[in-house]
Amino acid sequence: MREVLKTLDDTRHAAECIAKKIGVGDIILLKGEMGAGKTTITKTIVKALGSDDYVTSPTFAIMNVYKAEAMAIYHFDLYRLTKSMDLDTLGLDDYLYDSGTISLIEWPEAIENEFKDAKKISLIKDGESRILETNFDF
């Protein structure tokens, strides 16, 4: 699916719609250059899934955990990972394969080949707008 997002409200509305298509056990890969809106999408999804937690990009912590209504949401920022082997080294695979959670992964390039069934979201800057592309309908 492809949609042009002209405003921040458009981005938030798209993320709310996406949240309705996410279920426990899903892994969502969020791609886009710096400032494209990955964290805005994540914040809105986390809120739409019932969490009141404060959402920030976990660039240095690598992972934040948010409590939602009936699940935990893992928010990863893999910007600093250089290869998929790092997942094992850091123990992140234990979290990614936890079927009772949802995982939102920013900067998934180092691991995306390991998750063929993941939902993928790409944000592309286009002037002041963003182009949102997904491998699923929302």
Provide a quick synopsis of the model:
The chain has four helices and seven strands; from the N terminus they run βαβαββααβββ. With 138 residues, the protein is α/β, with parallel strands linked by helices.
What are the defining features of this structure?
138 residues, alpha/beta, 7 strands, ATP-binding, cytoplasm
Would you kindly provide a written description of the structure presented here, covering whatever features stand out?
With 138 residues, the protein is of the alpha/beta class. The protein is built from four helices and seven strands, in the order βαβαββααβββ. It has a seven-stranded mixed sheet, with helices on one face. Helices cover 25% and strands 30% of the residues. α1 (8-19) packs across α2. It starts with a strand and ends with a strand. It has helices at residues 8-19, 38-48, 85-90, 92-96; strands at residues 2-5, 27-32, 63-67, 72-77, 101-106, 119-126, 129-134. InterPro entries: P-loop_NTPase (IPR027417), T6A_TsaE (IPR003442).
Number of DSSP strand runs: 7
Strand content: 25-35%
Quaternary status: single chain
Counting DSSP H or I runs of 4 or more residues, the number of helices is 4
Order of helices and strands: EHEHEEHHEEE
Distance between the termini: 8 Å
Classify the secondary structure makeup into a structural class.
alpha/beta
Helix content: 10-25%
Identify low-pLDDT runs: none
Mean pLDDT over the residues: 91
Pfam families: TsaE (PF02367)
Main location: cytoplasm
Family: Belongs to the TsaE family.
Organism: Fenollaria massiliensis
